[in-house]
Design goal:
The structure holds 2 protein chains of 2 kinds.
Chain A: E1 5-7, E2 10-14, E3 19-24, E4 29-37, E5 44-49, E6 55-58, E7 61-65, E8 71-76, E9 85-93, E10 99-101, E11 105-110
Parallel strand pairs in A: 2-11
Antiparallel strand pairs in A: 1-3, 3-8, 4-5, 4-9, 6-7, 7-8, 9-10, 9-11
Chain B: E1 4-7, E2 10-13, E3 19-25, E4 31-37, E5 43-51, E6 54-57, E7 64-66, E8 76-78, E9 87-94, E10 104-105, E11 109-113
Parallel strand pairs in B: 2-11
Antiparallel strand pairs in B: 1-3, 3-8, 4-5, 4-9, 5-6, 7-8, 9-10, 9-11
The chains are: A mainly beta, B mainly beta.
Chain lengths: ~110, ~110
């Protein structure tokens, strides 16, 4: 089925380190969204991007909408233990309005 | 401040049984959708709807039916449950407009088929 390619799949980092993850698609999207999911809960929106080239921050999180409209990245600066979780990207298909999700990046922060 | 409401939260079914997962939203969103999430996997789209009376298949529609008789409700029906349908199911909704939207999730429904 259609899914976004999200990388890395998982990562272990030390507390205080910066983290970077990205998503790529073969389709053009008009919206990119980044979510975090904690165990046993639904995804929670972190950042929304609506224009090619847009760079948006939310605290220690920064995300960008790629110029080609086929990719996006999320950076987390100075990671802390509560950053642990699964991060998903999502893109919205222009023709059908449907949202497609990446396979997730599992982040573990070592104190 | 309900947002997207899913019921039930937990359900155990026997193989071959049928059931309906309920989803309702109070934000007047045109777009509603159902995803399933298997362990270690991302969210896979089952069915979606861009408005009342309109439904379409996602990536993994087999074994599921949906209908959209009202803007608020989007139930997901399992016709004859199979162990492969053991999963966490999320309902989500959004406006249809081309930009400036986000998709909002319910809290999830944990389904086990034995």
């Amino acid at each position: 089925g259609q899914q976004l390619n999200q990388s890395p799949q998982s990562m272990f980092i030390q507390e205080g380190e910066d983290v970077s993850m990205n998503c790529t698609s073969s389709s053009i999207f008009n919206t990119w969204l980044w979510y975090k999911q904690d165990p046993g809960e639904g995804p929670v929106l972190l950042i929304a991007l609506y224009k090619a080239g847009e760079l948006t921050s939310n605290g220690r999180l920064t995300a960008q909408f790629g110029i080609t409209r086929k990719d996006s990245f999320l950076n987390i600066s100075a990671s802390i233990p509560s950053d642990v979780g699964i991060y998903f990207c999502a893109g919205r298909d222009i023709g059908t309005y449907k949202y497609i999700f990446g396979t997730g990046t599992r982040l573990k922060v070592l104190a | 401040n309900a947002g997207v409401t899913q019921t039930p939260k937990f359900q155990v079914l026997k193989t071959g049984q049928s059931m309906t997962l309920q989803c309702a939203q109070d934000m007047n969103h045109e777009y509603m959708s159902w995803y399933r999430q298997d362990p270690g996997m991302g969210l896979r789209l089952i069915h979606y709807s861009v408005g009342a009376g309109i439904t379409d298949q996602g990536e993994v529609p087999n074994g599921y039916n949906v209908s959209r008789s009202t803007t608020e409700d989007f139930p997901l029906r399992l016709l004859s449950a199979a162990p492969s349908q053991t999963s966490v199911y999320f309902c989500a909704s959004s406006y249809n407009s081309d930009s400036g939207n986000t998709i909002y999730f319910g809290e999830g429904s944990w389904l086990t088929v034995v």
